[in-house]
Amino acid sequence: MAKKTYDLLFKLLLIGDSGVGKTCVLFRFSDDAFNTTFISTIGIDFKIKTVELQGKKIKLQIWDTAGQERFHTITTSYYRGAMGIMLVYDITNGKSFENISKWLRNIDEHANEDVERMLLGNKCDMDDKRVVPKGKGEQIAREHGIRFFETSAKANINIEKAFLTLAEDILRKTPVKEPNSENVDISSGGGVTGWKSKCC
Amino acid sequence: MEEPPLREEEEEEGDEAGPEGALGKSPFQLTAEDVYDISYVMGRELMALGSDPRVTQLQFKIVRVLEMLETLVNEGSLTVEELRMERDNLRKEVEGLRREGSAAGREVNLGPDKMVVDLTDPNRPRFTLQELRDVLQERNKLKSQLLVVQEELQCYKSGLIPAREGPGGRREKGALVTRASNASSNKEEKTIIRKLFSFRSGKQT
Fold first, then answer.
1. Does any domain span residue A178?
2. What CATH number is associated with residue A83?
3. Beta-sheet pairing, A56-65 with A44-53
4. Residue A184, domain member (yes or no)
5. pLDDT tens-digit profile of A99-124?
6. DSSP class of residue A84?
7. Is residue A181 in some structural domain?
8. Which candidate from B144, B179, B186 shows the least CB-CB separation from A186?
C-alpha cells in the first residue's frame, strides 16, 4: 500500500479480568475519550494509533481482549503475535489483582518468549474504594521483572505514558534496519499468522 | 384430620353402649379411655366373685395385663400421630417437587456439565465458538482494511498523490490486495511507495 506512513508496526495486547477497564484504557489512548457505561467486549477487538518515538513513526495496533472466561479460547489465540502485553487489574477489585498470577501464567503458556510485559493498576482515581495498595502492585511487578503503572482512563492518568513506555521498550529490542525495508501488513490483522511480517 | 371426628363418634357410641362398649371395639381403634372402661367392667365383675384368694391372685395379673394394654394403646396412638405428620410432610414435598419438575422438564437427568436451553428464549445461545471466532476475524480484517483505505483516501485528499497518477495508483492497490500471494508486486509497490513518499521519509529522518 502506498503506506509508508509509518516505519514500524508494533502489536500490543491488553489482558486482564472482565471490568478492570481494558477497553477504557485503550479508548483513552486512541481517542482521548472516556465512557462510563460498561459494555463487555465481545471476544477481541483492536484499535490503531500511530506515535512517534526517536524520530520513528510507529504504528501501534492494540488488541483489546474480552476478560470474560467464556472468550478465553478465542483471546488466547491472539497472544502469540503480540510484541507487548499490558496486564490490567482494577485497584478497587481485589479479585482482579489476585488473578494476575493466572494471567501471567497465560502469557507464559501462549505468548512469545520475548514478549514485553507491563502491569497496570487501573481506576487509580477511585482512591476511596481502593483495596489494592500501590505497594502490592509494585511488589508483584518487581517479582516478575516487569514495569508497573497505576493508571486512570477516566482521569487520564499515566495512560499515554504507559503505552509509550511499552512501545519504547519494544523499540529498544528491535534491530535497527533500513527504514524502508520494512514491509508491514496491517490488513491481515485478524489472523495470528498475519504478524509474521518483518516488523521486528 | 379424619381421625378426631371418628374418635368423637366412637366415644359417643361408647357412651351410649356404656363401659361394656369398649370390649366390642376393634383393637386398632382402642384408646386409653377404652382401657379404663374395660378395667372398670372387669373390676366390677371380679368384686362380684367375692374375696377368694385365687380371685385376688387373678386380679393382680389382670391389672398388670391392663396396664400393659394401656401402655401399648398410648404408644400406638403416638406412633399413628407421628406417621400422620410424616405423611403430610411427604405429601407437601411431593407436591412441591411435582411443581418444580413440570417447570424444569428433564433437567434432573442431566449431568453436572450440561445445560438446559429454553428454545423459546430469543436470547438463547445458538452459535458456536468457532462461528464467533470467524465473524470476529472477518470483522477485524475488514476494520483494518477500512483503516488502510481511509489512510489512502487521506493521501488523495491532501494531494500527496497527484490526480494524473490516480489510475496507476488504483491499479497498484488492486495488486496490493493479492500481495500476500504475489511476491513480485511487493517490489513494485515499494518502489512506488518510495517515489510517492520519499519527501516524507526524508522529513522524518
1. no
2. 3.40.50.300
3. antiparallel
4. no
5. 999 999 999 999 999 999 999 999 99
6. E
7. no
8. B144
Instruction: Give chain A's domain count.
Output: 1
* Total beta-carbon pairs less than 8 A apart between chain A and chain B: 89
**Which among B141, B172, B204 has the least Cβ separation from residue A55?**
B204
Per-residue pLDDT reduced to its tens digit, B69-113: 999 999 988 898 999 999 999 999 999 888 887 766 555 677 888
What does the pLDDT read at residue B164? 57
Give pLDDT, residue A58.
95
In a domain, A41, yes or no: yes
Question: Which ipTM value was assigned to this complex?
Answer: 0.75
Q: How far apart, in whole angstroms, are the C-alpha atoms of residue B19 and residue A147?
A: 100
Q: Which of A2, A183, A190 sits opposite B140 (nearest CB)?
A: A190
Domain extent, residue A93, equals 6-171
Grid coordinates representing A149? 503503572
User: Three-class SS of residue A150?
Assistant: strand
List all residues 6 or more positions away from A111 whose beta carbon is below 8 Å from its beta carbon: A13, A79, A80, A82, A85
β-bridge partners, A8: A58
Q: Collect the ranges in chain B with pLDDT lower than 50.
A: 1-14, 166-185, 187-188, 193, 197-205
Residues of chain B neighbouring A192 (CB-CB closer than 8 A):
none
Task: Provide the pLDDT for residue B162.
Answer: 66
Enter the pTM of the model.
Answer: 0.59
> Does A73 contact B179 at a Cβ distance shorter than 8 Å?
no
